[in-house]
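RECORD TYPE: inverse folding
INPUT: structure tokens
STRUCTURE:
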């Protein structure tokens, strides 16, 4: 059902000729289920691919569950939960929370060449850079830009550096279409406590819920965590 999905009208091809169904802004997150950790030795890892047609693909690597909140939600808490993350899980879903109900979620699928594909083997669902942490001496990975390279508790970092790398796909350069409006990627924040926020920053670590933090968001076993290594890249697949 997602093969021809478009999250917004008016998308043009990428400047490099790649169709918007394949282009993404990706985040690699390496963190811990405690408030500190060692770069290159994190025990909780995910990669999130935010495609410019409005879909997202989330891949879970090594994972220590913290019984946190997982799902895609609006600032007021509308949306849908995920099956609890575990190593080798993957999810495909619309970034727009108002579409993110069970009908639009795909569990243990990936998004390839503009098509949502089921993957039976966990190894095919791991993060593309691998399930395990990347050695600090090799951080950031080739082609990626580092945001975090030390252990941070209750942190929040913006994807502002990605703005100049995100092509114009119908709105303005450096923007993605988010719930009916164009949002500059500098207003996307990656939290150490396991959430991605659209439109604002938060370091909230307690009382987390579908409505807290009060921004549109993706929550990935969100709890009182920390991150050690975070990076982004723009690409296609």
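DESIGNED SEQUENCE:
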């Amino acid at each position: 059902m997602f093969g021809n999905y478009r999250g917004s009208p008016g998308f043009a091809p990428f400047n490099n000729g790649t169709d918007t169904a394949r282009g993404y802004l990706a985040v690699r997150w390496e963190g811990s289920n405690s408030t500190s950790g060692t770069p290159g030795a994190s025990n909780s890892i995910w990669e999130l691919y935010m495609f410019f047609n409005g879909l997202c693909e989330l891949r879970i690597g090594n994972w220590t569950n913290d019984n946190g909140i997982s799902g895609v939600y609006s600032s007021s808490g509308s949306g849908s939960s995920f099956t609890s993350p575990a190593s080798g899980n993957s999810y495909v879903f619309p970034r727009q929370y108002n579409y993110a109900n069970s009908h639009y979620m795909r569990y243990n699928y990936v998004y390839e060449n503009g098509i949502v594909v089921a993957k039976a083997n966990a190894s095919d669902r791991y993060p593309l850079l691998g399930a395990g942490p990347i050695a600090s001496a090799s951080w950031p990975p080739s082609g990626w830009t580092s945001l975090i390279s030390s252990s941070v508790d209750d942190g929040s970092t913006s994807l502002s550096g990605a703005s100049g790398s995100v092509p114009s796909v119908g709105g303005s350069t450096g923007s993605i279409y988010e719930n009916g409006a164009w949002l500059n990627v500098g207003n996307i924040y990656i939290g150490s406590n396991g959430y991605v926020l659209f439109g604002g920053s938060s370091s909230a670590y307690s009382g987390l819920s579908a409505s807290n933090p009060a921004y549109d968001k993706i929550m990935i076993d969100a709890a009182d965590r920390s991150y050690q290594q975070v990076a982004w890249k723009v690409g296609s697949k």
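NOTES: The two ends are 19 Å apart (CA to CA).
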